[in-house]
Amino acid sequence: MQEVRCPSCQTLNTEEAKYCMNCGVLLFDAIDEAKPLKDQEKPKSRRRGCVVSFFIAIVLLIAFICIVANLPTQPTQSQPKPFKVTLNTTPIVKSGEIGFHIITNLPDGMMLNVDLFNDNTDYHSQDQVIIKNGATDTTYFSNDNNPLEKGRYDLQVTSPFSIVQNESVQAVIGKHGEYMKGNLIINNSAINFSGLYTVKYDKEFNI
């Protein structure tokens, strides 16, 4: 049985007492103050329940983060960036015939047309090459299997319109060649809308 202390004389009284048995003071206020004391364990129980719920929520959150972190991610495609085209040629003379070693930063698989001219003799011959590992070699140009006549020749390296290039090449240079930049790029918008930008390299030399 709970006892109630008198607020006036501090005498302990039974819970049922309305007045202090020592000094006669009304104990209603003391009883009302004392009653919550026997219920003090209930708030503690509620607090313990809240703490447990909090820790369970933390554990579930950590588990969720771990699951999400281990999910397979879809590879992201990088956005193509404009680049300045570089291209250099080195002539290789063999028994009066001539070939060319081409070095470039154009993408692997890209087709290039190689033309050799001599305006004085009306000579014209063409080869088509494909870039591999940043380089390629032309065939050896000759005059019907005979050595080329001595004189001044013009070498031209051009790219077909981007529409005829394969998809991996288009992914680098753009569907219209728009990612290719620099003084080797020409704009064909006046004559063609399927591949606006192409490569054109010119070099004159003597044989």
Write a structural description.
This protein has helices at 28-38, 41-69, 167-173, and strands at 3-5, 12-14, 83-84, 87-94, 97-104, 111-118, 123-130, 135-137, 152-158, 180-181, 185-187, 197-206. It is built from 3 helices and 12 strands. It has 2 domains: 3-67, no CATH class; 83-206, Immunoglobulin-like (Sandwich).
How is the topology of this model organized?
Elements: E1 3-5, E2 12-14, H1 28-38, H2 41-69, E3 83-84, E4 87-94, E5 97-104, E6 111-118, E7 123-130, E8 135-137, E9 152-158, H3 167-173, E10 180-181, E11 185-187, E12 197-206
Parallel strand pairs: 3-10
Antiparallel strand pairs: 1-2, 4-5, 5-8, 6-7, 6-9, 9-12, 11-12
pLDDT < 50 stretches: 30-42
How are strands sequenced across the largest beta sheet?
A: 7-6-9-12-11
Radius of gyration, whole Å: 46 Å
Shape: rod-shaped
Number of domains: 2
Per CATH, which architecture of the largest domain?
Sandwich
Q: Could you give a short account of the major beta sheet?
A: 5 strands, antiparallel
Q: From the 3D structure, determine the CATH topology of the largest domain.
A: Immunoglobulin-like
Question: Could you say which structural class the secondary elements and strand pairing correspond to?
Answer: alpha+beta
Topology pattern, helix = H, strand = E: EEHHEEEEEEEHEEE
Helix content: 10-25%
Q: What is the CATH level 1 assignment of the largest domain?
A: Mainly Beta
Integer average pLDDT? 84
Report the count of strand segments: 12
- Helices, by number, come to 3
Termini Cα gap:
123 Å
Percentage of β-strand residues: 25-35%
